[in-house]
Amino acid sequence: MRRAGLAEGPPGNYVASGYSVYEEENEHLQEGLRAKVTALKSLSIDIGTEVKYQNNMLGDMDSDFDSTGGLLGATIGRVKQLSRGSQTKLLCYMLLFCCFVFFVLYWFIKLR
Fold first, then answer.
1. Rounded Cα distance, 64 and 74, in Å
2. Would you say 3 and 19 are in contact if contact means Cβ atoms under 8 Å apart?
3. Cβ partners under 8 Å of residue 5, min gap 6
4. Which of 2, 18, 79, 91 lies in disulfide reach of 7, CB 3.0 to 4.6 Å?
5. What is the pLDDT of residues 75-101, one digit of tens each?
6. Between vectors from CA 53 to CA 67 and to CA 60, what angle results, nearest 5°?
7. Nearest to 95 by CA among 110, 81, 77, 83
8. 7: exposed, middle or buried (C-beta count within 10 Å: 0-12, 13-18, 19+)?
9. How many CA atoms does the CB half-sphere of 51 hold within 13 Å?
10. Measured between alpha carbons, how far is 87 from 68 in angstroms, rounded to an integer?
11. How confident is the model at residue 37 (pLDDT cuts 50, 70, 90)?
């Protein structure tokens, strides 16, 4: 009978029945839940932004690796063409150039 407002006291007085205590507790819990939902929403938005950024970065890296792979493939093709032909003079120049570069590097390291 107290919940229906038929208890002793004025008809609008729900304090005696504990109704307002439950309402206050529900309001408090609702505010806590609202804060947690807001935090989760902002976190999920941040995660979405980070995922988009990482996807763009991976796409850029993929295109860079493709271009590098094409460059290396062309270079390997040229080296194979050099090894098949009878271009001994060019191969000798390449060998002398490599020796010169290693000698210069050795000289720079030795001076330190």
1. 16
2. yes
3. 11, 12, 14
4. 2
5. 888 878 777 766 777 778 888 999 999
6. 5
7. 83
8. middle
9. 6
10. 27
11. very high
Report the distance separating Cα 98 and Cα 105, nearest Å.
11
Using alpha carbons only, how large is the chain's radius of gyration in Å?
A: 39
For residue range 48-66, what is the model confidence (pLDDT) as tens digits? 999 999 999 999 999 988 8
Only one residue has tokens 């050795």, namely 106
Q: How many alpha carbons fall within 13 Å on the CB side of residue 59?
A: 6
Q: Give percent of the chain with pLDDT exceeding 70.
A: 80
